[in-house]
């Protein structure tokens, strides 16, 4: 039995062995991934109507890949007040957003109490909106400044009305790579512990992987396998009430940061990564081709290589666009639907937990 068939049969293989999946031609990998995708979702492509709000870019940590946080490459620091964020959330809801997605820097001026007052005020003003907030890196930072323990942070998030967690802060789990690109940030083990405990509370989250910088193929595979194991653990402890909704391979954006990467993955390398993710992550339901990092066209092509989700309208995107992505103004629902349908797929509007709302 060759390697691909062993992977499809879910045989226990190492990251080093599975990294040789990249040696297959793109069409072979794509066909295998697409067969899995078609069995699960036929020709559906999912999206949601959401709004990203980034309260601040003043950060206590210094990640070399980041172009969003205020630094000498981005000398425009800002911090929003709770009232300012509430105004943006209300405007987004008025424009059709069903999800408010809040991810910020690790701002040393925001207190523990500030975060939870923010969440309570959003849910008080917009009880019908799904509140997705705080990456595991932010949870870890809030734990560090408060000394309450990450479990208490997560329990307080539930009490304050946070509905699910985004998947940011994972970057690449290999600690050698993390030491270079995001030293001092949440460790890979703590990232996984935070999500597993969140799942044990009956809550869902996403998982990301930042790729296309200094990591090797084997590091990507190792990252996926750790997520697969964590999902199995969440299924065990959460009795299938909580877990990862989706895996999101985030393509590294090259501008305005300190990594100085000289070579970047080809379109084929990106699509192979999507396909391998679909093949290996049999227990994570969705693979998201995040158009804000891939670009709209490649994200649509990725729907032919195992991905089934595009993310959403976003309305305003600040983090990836700071590093050169063409995603600053988001997309209208009409444009996103049109692009999905023109590519030969069925456009399915979903909620944040992948309940289908309408075929558009």
From TrEMBL:
Family as reported in the entry's similarity comment: Belongs to the radical SAM superfamily. MqnE family.
Cofactor dependency: [4Fe-4S] cluster
EC number: 2.5.1.120
Cofactor note: Binds 1 [4Fe-4S] cluster. The cluster is coordinated with 3 cysteines and an exchangeable S-adenosyl-L-methionine.
Keyword entries, A-Z: 4Fe-4S, Iron, Iron-sulfur, Menaquinone biosynthesis, Metal-binding, S-adenosyl-L-methionine, Transferase
Gene Ontology molecular-function annotations: 4 iron, 4 sulfur cluster binding; 7,8-didemethyl-8-hydroxy-5-deazariboflavin synthase activity; aminodeoxyfutalosine synthase activity; iron ion binding
Reactions performed catalytically: 3-[(1-carboxyvinyl)-oxy]benzoate + S-adenosyl-L-methionine + H2O = 6-amino-6-deoxyfutalosine + hydrogencarbonate + L-methionine + H(+)
Binding residue positions for S-adenosyl-L-methionine: 65, 171
Domain Radical SAM core: 45-285
Binding-site positions, [4Fe-4S] cluster: 59, 63, 66
TM annotation in the entry: none
SUPFAM superfamilies found in the cross-reference section: Radical SAM enzymes
Root EC class: transferase
Name of the protein: Aminodeoxyfutalosine synthase
Gene3D superfamilies: Aldolase class I (3.20.20.70)
Superkingdom to which the source organism belongs: Bacteria
Pfam family, one: Radical_SAM
Gene Ontology biological process terms from the UniProt entry: menaquinone biosynthetic process
CDD domains, A to Z: Radical_SAM
């Amino acid at each position: 039995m060759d390697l691909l068939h062993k992977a499809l049969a879910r045989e226990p293989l190492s990251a080093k062995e599975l990294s040789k999946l990249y040696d297959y031609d793109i069409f072979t990998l794509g066909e295998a991934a697409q067969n899995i995708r078609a069995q699960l979702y036929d020709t559906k492509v999912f999206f949601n109507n959401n709004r990203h709000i980034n309260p601040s870019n003043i950060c206590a940590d210094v990640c070399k890949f980041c172009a969003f946080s205020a630094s000498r490459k981005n000398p425009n620091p800002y911090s929003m007040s709770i009232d300012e964020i509430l105004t943006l959330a209300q405007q987004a809801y008025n424009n059709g957003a069903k999800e408010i997605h809040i991810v910020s820097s690790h701002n040393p001026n925001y207190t523990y109490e500030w975060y939870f007052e923010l969440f309570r005020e959003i849910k008080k003003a917009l009880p019908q909106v799904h509140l997705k907030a705080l990456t595991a890196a932010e949870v870890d930072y809030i734990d560090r400044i408060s000394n309450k323990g990450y479990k208490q942070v997560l329990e307080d998030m539930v009490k304050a009305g946070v509905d699910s967690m985004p998947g940011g802060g994972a970057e690449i789990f290999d600690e050698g790579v993390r030491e270079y690109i995001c030293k001092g940030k949440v460790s890979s083990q703590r990232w996984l512990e935070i999500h597993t405990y969140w799942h044990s509370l009956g809550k869902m989250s996403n998982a990301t992987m930042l790729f296309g910088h200094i990591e090797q193929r084997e590091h990507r595979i190792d990252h996926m396998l750790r997520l697969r194991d964590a999902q199995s653990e969440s299924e065990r402890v959460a009795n299938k009430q909580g877990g990862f909704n989706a895996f999101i391979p985030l393509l590294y954006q090259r501008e305005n940061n300190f990594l100085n990467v000289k070579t970047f993955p080809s379109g084929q390398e990106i699509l192979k990564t999507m396909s391998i993710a679909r093949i290996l992550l049999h227990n994570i339901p969705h693979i998201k081709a995040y158009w804000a990092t891939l670009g709209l066209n490649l994200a649509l092509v990725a729907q032919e290589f195992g991905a089934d989700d595009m993310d959403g309208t976003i309305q305003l995107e600040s983090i990836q666009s700071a590093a050169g992505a063409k995603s600053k103004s988001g997309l209208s629902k009409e444009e996103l639907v049109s692009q999905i349908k023109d590519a030969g797929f069925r456009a399915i509007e979903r909620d944040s937990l992948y309940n289908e709302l309408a075929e558009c």
